[in-house]
Amino acid sequence: MKQKIVLLLRFCIGLTHAAQAQPLLIENVNWIEVETGHLHTEQDLLIQDGIIDQIGEHGTLAQLPVGTQRISGTGKYLLPGFIDSHAHIALGPVGGKLENRQVVLFITPDTLLLRNSLEQLVQYGVTTARDPGGLTELTVGG
C-alpha cells in the first residue's frame, strides 16, 4: 500500500512541476508579511519554476519572461500554503462520498480515496499534511 501511495504522490508532483514550467504573474494582489504583520497592498508577484522570483508594487517589476501567464489579484489576498498536522487523508472526503469522480484503471480504491482527500485539502489551501494513522501514516507537502 505505501509503495502505491509513493507512486501516486510522485505522479501528482510530476504534474505540479509540469504545470509550473510557465512563469506566472499575479497582479495587483494584497499580502500580509507574516513576521511583521505588515499589509502589502497592490503588489505584483512573479513565480518562476515554482519559486517566488520577484515581488513589487503593481507595474514596477523588471521585464517579464516571454509567455508569462497573468492572473488578476485585484481585491484579493495571497496566502501561504496552510499546514494540516492532523489530517485523516485515508478516511476519504467528508461523508465518504466519491460522486462525480472518474476512476482511472491503475488506481486502487485506497489510492482513489487518498487522491480525493488530497484534492480536497488543496481546495482548502492546505499544501502540507500529516496523516498520523490509518492506512497511510504519511506526510505530504510541497
Structural account:
The chain is an alpha/beta fold and 142 residues long. The protein has 2 domains: 19-78, Roll (Urease, subunit C, domain 1); 82-141, no CATH class. The chain contains 2 helices and 8 strands; from the N terminus they run H-E-E-E-E-E-E-H-E-E. It has helices at 2-19, 109-123, and strands at 24-32, 39-48, 51-57, 69-72, 77-78, 82-84, 126-130, 139-141. Strands 1, 2, 3, 4 and 5 form a 5-stranded mixed beta sheet that branches. A 3-stranded mixed beta sheet has the order 6-7-8. Strand 6 (82-84), helix 2 and strand 7 form a beta-alpha-beta unit.
What distance lies between the first and last C-alpha atoms, to the nearest angstrom? 22 Å
Relative strand content: 25-35%
Report the CATH superfamily of the largest domain: Urease, subunit C, domain 1
| CATH-derived architecture of the largest domain | Roll
Largest sheet: 5 strands, mixed
CATH topology of the largest domain: Urease, subunit C, domain 1
Class of the largest domain in CATH? Mainly Beta
Query: What oligomeric state do the depicted chains represent?
Result: single chain
- Helix percentage: 10-25%
Order of helices and strands: HEEEEEEHEE
What's the total helix number?
2
Q: How many β-strand runs?
A: 8
Give the domain tally. 2
Provide the gyration radius in Å.
Answer: 18 Å
Low-confidence stretches: 1-11, 93-97
Q: Which structural category do the helix and sheet elements fall into?
A: alpha/beta
Shape verdict: elongated
> Overall mean pLDDT score?
75
